[in-house]
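@channel sequence for tomorrow's demo:
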Amino acid sequence: MIGRQFRQRLLILGTVLLAVTASLVLAHELVAQAAPPRPDRVRRDTITVSADSMVARLARAEAAIALLQQQLAIEAATAVRTRSRLQLELSGRVLTNSYFTQGRANSAELPLLAREAITATNPAQGQPGTRAFGISLRQTFIGAALSVDSVLGGTFVGDIDIDFFSGGTAFTADPFGFPTPRLRTVSAQMRWSRTTLMVGTDSPLISDLNPVSLAATGTPAFALAGNLWNWIPQLRASHSFAQSRVGSTPVSWVVQAAALAPAAGVRHPNEPDLIDAGERSGRPALEARMSMHWGAADAANDAHGEVGVSVHRGWLRVTGDRFTVARAIAADARVGLSHGLTLLAEGYSGRAISSLGGGGIGQTFGAASAGQAFGPPVRDVAGWAQLNAQLRPTLSSGVGCGLAVADARDRPRRLRNGTCETHLIWRPTQPVLVGFEVRRIGTVYATGNQRATHFNLALGFEW
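structure tokens (generated this afternoon):
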């Protein structure tokens, strides 16, 4: 839409310049005809050359305006329009990931943790391999956004994001040869000057950041290692206080609250209707966040960012009328530093929050005692940080680590999970992009430590 407005303004400006140029040419011709003959031959030649130059410029201006008119006609014929005649903006990324994983992991394509070692029950049959190579396009995604002004005194914004990462854990599974579409996020927002209301599916309010990565978009990087990423249906409200200034830097405060769809990822073994323990609670999960913002994201001196603190509380009903409380307190930061550096970081302390996207290293309850259906709720402390650098206009790089530590008193199967990565992203020209990432994963079990290494080459284009 911005490109169309720019070309329309350019067309108007070209038309005005054409009219002015034509007037100047006509004025020169009238002056040449009305002026008495002069003996100065050099002056007459100068006027003639000037008139010829003006005519040439006029011809070039007419050609440029004709080209602009043709481009506008083509755009009008190919523009994407909705049934309601509102303009729809499309975005997307087609991504081919070639990967090599050394060591046992939960996925060769997008590993998040290392698996326990296999104990061979029949040594004669040998051990399975620990290396894997593959090529996938499942992390391709497509998005669409709609924005309408003057709706209930504000602006309505709707968007949807779909990828092809649903299902499949082996090349023989259909989703690898024929990837299945999956709804990632979708939202409808009403935005006023200081207040925003949103309904849709998005990441938890207490963990709204994700690391930069072309190797991990189907599931964000550092999941199971400090990143609570899961896309959850929710209602959310945000309100921004009036801005103030600290020196020359603008500062504002934002408070947010959300009600999330209850989910636990577990249910009682005797559950007759296969209903999740979170839904059995009969109430939504609740979250709140307060954050401070300073500067502008496009500040020339990189002095911009935000920090926030947040809380989560949910309820799970796993046996009878007893409730298990899921809770977390979290902090996050996005800070623009000098020389094109940006720091992203999150950390939390939680209990029974696996459903938020990897809390407790993917464990809601620990090992159950004899005669019990569930063990104690797993508590964990986790966090991640990533430092990104814009090395050149077309080249960026970053390095980061994430770590989650479960409380051993809750008898979790996985005690610790850590991931470190480094990546390089090159955008040689629009719309092409190339990325390379190396990831090292270490997972601690009661039976020992396991490690895996992942290499990923991403090639694609985006619009």
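heads up for whoever presents: The helical segments are 2-34, 41-78, 174-177, 277-280, 359-362.
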